[in-house]
Every structure is written in structure tokens, then in C-alpha cells.
Amino acid sequence: MSEQNDTTNRIVIHADRGAYQIERAVYGHFAEHLGRCIYGGIWVGEDSAIPNTRGIRDDVVEALRRIDIPVLRWPGGCFADEYHWRDGVGPRQARPTSINTHWGGVTETNHFGTHEFMDLCGQLGCEPYICGNLGSGTVQEMASWVEYLTVDGSPMADLRRANGREAPWAIRFWGVGNENWGCGGNMRAEYYADLYRRYATYCRDFGANRLYKIAGGANTDDYHWTEVLMREAGRLMDGLSLHYYVVPGTWESKGSSIQFGEREWFAALEKTLYMDELITRHAAIMDRYDLEKRVGLIVDEWGVWHDVLPGTNPGFLYQQNTLRDALAAGITLNVFNNHCDRVRMANLAQTVNVLQALILTEEAGSGLILTPTYHVFEMYRVHQGATLLPIDIACQTYTQDDRAIPAISASASRDGEGSVHLSLCNLHPDKAVPVSCELRGVDTQSVTGRVLTADSIDAHNTFDQPGRVRPAAFDGATHTPGSLEIDLPPRSVVVLKVR
Q1: From CA 338, how far away is CA 92, in angstroms rounded?
Q2: Which of 134, 141, 133, 166 is nearest to 152 (CA)?
Q3: CA 338 to chain centre
Q4: According to the model, what pLDDT value does residue 442 have?
Q5: How far is residue 343's CA from residue 14's CA, in Å, rounded to a whole number?
Q6: Which residues, including other chains, have CB under 8 Å from residue 327's CB and lie 6 or more apart?
Q7: For the residues of 432-468, what is the DSSP string, one character each?
Q8: Which secondary structure element, helix H or strand E, spans residue 480, and what is its range?
Q9: Which residues of the chain have pLDDT under 70?
Q10: CB count, 10 Å around CB of 458?
């Protein structure tokens, strides 16, 4: 049984303030060699009947360009710390194969490698974020990859030219290992900190290229890991990662992505809100060593993790994506926006066909659907590069049994043209929420908006019904000078534009 108390819902937007920019990279994504994310999702090969450009699916590129994808992380994930980059360059027919030991034990053809990834980023117009192999690779191997990508004249540059690329690429984001507390080597924080210092030393800047070096950070609430990394290696890093997955059930039984009730809805959203505490506490540790906030917190794996759909490979992590996942995405992006003083990049796991995917493709065929999570990113793209506006919220609580969470999640920003955007989530599954909003320091001339909702909490898009959950125009907001009155529909994500 759920209920909602009668507290007035009030938001104050301090539009006359704003000290921090929401980095575009906060709206980043992640593509790992896992299941059908790369092969069949992004890469189909040049001989495929599915329309492609140099083997990369045209419809996937078009969809991702529509959400202004700013950065893409690759090749993992756990896969990164068993990936040897030289296996993925040169003529494809001559590339060695290997076993993807982490994800399904399938054969990795290495047909999608460095050049293909950089081509993908070029087609998307996004920045690459490459995660180097610290777990099973050598210092020399990682250093050579940096050189291969970014040097104009050297033996590695000659090899790159022999493989078809004359000019070096511009690479900014570089990860030095992944989840080295787990699949990346089961290391202690103290041991990884020393290895990070060693490997990062040889990830050099060549020419005009400047690497933004990202150390492998904590799993969820491992605050000791953050403490050790900042103390021992903070001065040698530009970013420190954090991974957190929302698991509605338990790790042994995560729960279905499409068959659930209000208890599972509540559990997922309650665990989503935990991201705010995690960032607050990790950032507080970082502040002790970096008061100027030079080192960014990089949440480069986040999302909702359900059980795989029945009948699919358990190692492929293929799940559906419902309105519940859309609410989780909206809440999380609001949290990132509100912590943009420290959060400089985030990467949803993952882009296509894996976990909380933006896009699902048919296993056999050319079909493609956009998930509810995709639509949240499309609606929230207005925050990319905008100035965060501080907000104060007083709102009702949404309760389930003896637990309570805020009924509203929100964030606001001002874009370069002076328009204010307010993103709102109503977490309650069946009750509308009236909200009074005061805008300080701005004259309210007009308000327009869009809403994402559906007729049930488990609504999702399928290949038969690809448009069941999609944004629509929102007419539930009225304005007077300096204020808004908003009627948030139940189970909804709303983004307003105020001029």
C-alpha cells in the first residue's frame, strides 16, 4: 500500500545565481564488447544488408546523433582489462580471435577495434573515452596504444599509417584500468594506487594532445578506496571513477525488467535516489585532498540492472526497458546536474542491447526501437553545457509500507540564450503532483514543455509497438511573472522551457 502526504510542493529556482557548468560529458554513454552491444548493435560489417557506413549501422548513428551524444566509453568494462589493442588493428581477416571470458564465453573476432571505434566517434561527432588494460596488460602495451593514437611521427605512428590512418587522433579521456577491485584484478586499493601511479606515468602527452587521466574508482560505497586513491595518487589523476548499479531485488535475483508491481517500482526508485548520497560522501573525501575540485568524479558506469529476458544468453545482459527505467534515468541525471561542481562525466551502461540500453535491435533482422531511457536523454539534452541553477525543494513524500522517498526529483539550468530549463520527475505511480515554482531573478514570459509517461508503470516499447512510450507536448504548466504552477502527471518525466 502506498500513500502521499499533503505537504505543499514548492520549488524555488535561483535563476539569478549559478556558478557551475553542467559538462556535456555528464550525458555520456558506454559501449562494451558484451552481448549484442557492439556486434549486431553498432557493428554489422560492410557486407551487411542493414544500411551501414563502413560497417557501422546508420540507424544507430542517426538515433545517437539526435540526443547529442557527447562522449562514448570503450572497450569496457570488464572486457577492457583483457583487451589487447594490437589484436584489433590491421586487416580484419588477419586479426586473431580470442574468447570473451567475461561475457558469455563467445569468440571475439576483433573486427571492431581501434580504427572502427574512432570511425564511430567521428560519425557520432562525440569524444572517445578509451579504457586501457591495466589488469592483464603491460605498461608498455598501454603506452604504445597512446602513442599509436596520438603521435605524429614514431614507429607506432608508422604502424597507424600502414593501417590506413595518416593523421593522429585527438584523445582526451583515458581510463587507466577498470574495476580493479573486481574483474580488473581483484586488487587492494593500496596496490592499485601504486599501479595507477606507474601506468599513468607512461600515458604521455604528445604534441598538442593532452590526456585527461581517469583512475579506476570505487564500487558503490567503498569510501576506503576513494580515500586511498586520493591520498596516494590524487595529484597524478584528472578524474576518479565511481560505479553504481540499481538492482531492484538482490544480486542473485535482480527481478524482471517487465513483470513487476509497485513494490518493485518503489524499490528501484529508492535505490536510484541513493546515488545522491554516494556522490555526496565520495565528493566529501575528494574535497579533503582537492579543495579546488580539480579532480572530476567520473560516474562511468551507472544504470538499472535487471535479470536477463527469459530465453536470452545470461552472459549477454539483455533486458527490456520500461517507464520505470525512464524515471530512474531522469532522477539520476537530476542528481548529476545538481552535483556538477564535482561530477564531470557519466556513462550510462550501456548504449545498445545491454542493461539499461538506449536502443534495442532485432537479433535477426534490421528492426530498431528507442527505449523510454533514450527519450529521457533526448529531453534532457537541453542541460548539456548549460549553467546549473541552484534550487530549493519542499515536497510530499511517496511511501510504500514503512518506507518513504521524496515524490519529486528536479534540476534546473540556464542555456546560452538565457532560457531556463526545469526537469521534473513525479515518482508516484498513480497520483498527480501539483507544484508551485518561484523563479528568482528572471521575468517569466512563456513556458512550454514535454512529458514522458504511459498508461502503466511497466509500459515499454517493442518491435510491434515501438511508440508506446514516447514524449508528448505538455500543457500542464501556467505562468505568472516570476512563478509557475505545474500539474505533474503520475509516473512522469517533464522538461519545461521558461523564457
Answers
A1: 45
A2: 166
A3: 16
A4: 86
A5: 21
A6: 269, 272, 425, 427, 491, 493
A7: -EEEEEEEET-----EEEEEE--SSTT-B--SSSTTS
A8: strand 477-480
A9: 1-7
A10: 18
Q: Which residue has 574535497 as its cell numbers?
A: 287
> Which amino acid is present at 79?
F
Q: Cis (ω within 30 of 0) for the bond into 350?
A: yes
Distance CA 483, CA 494 (A): 17
Residue in this structure with the C-alpha cell 598501454, named with its chain if needed: 142
Strand blocks (E) in 192-254: 212-219, 239-246
What confidence tens digit (pLDDT) does each residue in 230-264 have?
A: 999 999 999 999 999 999 999 999 999 999 999 99
Catalytic site residue from 32, 108, 147, 301: 301
| Residue 417 annotated in active site | no
CB 177 within 8 A of CB 201: no
With a CB cutoff of 8 Å and minimum separation 6, the contacts of 496 are 421, 422, 423, 424, 447, 448, 449, 474, 477, 484, 486
Cell numbers at 47, concatenated: 557486407
Grid cell, residue 296, equals 572530476
Cα torsion 394, 395, 398, 404 to 10°: value is: 10
166 is catalytic: no
pLDDT of residue 1: 43
Grid coordinates of 74:
570503450
Output the pLDDT for position 8.
83
- What's the residue count for the chain? 499
β-sheet bridge partners, residue 427 = none
Q: Report yes or no: 436 and 10 within 8 Å, Cβ to Cβ.
A: yes
- Give the angle subtended at the CA of 311 by the CAs of 363 and 349, to the nearest 5°: 65
Q: In whole angstroms, give the CA distance from residue 236 to residue 238.
A: 7
Q: Say which residue the cell 572486457 belongs to.
A: 79
Dmax (CA) for the chain in angstroms is: 70
Indicate which residue of 179, 232, 264, 378 is catalytic: 179
pLDDT digits (tens, 9 = 90+) for 441-451: 988 899 999 99
What is the model's pLDDT at position 50?
96
- Least Cα distance to 359 among 381, 384, 378 occurs for 378
DSSP character for 33? S
pLDDT at 7: 61
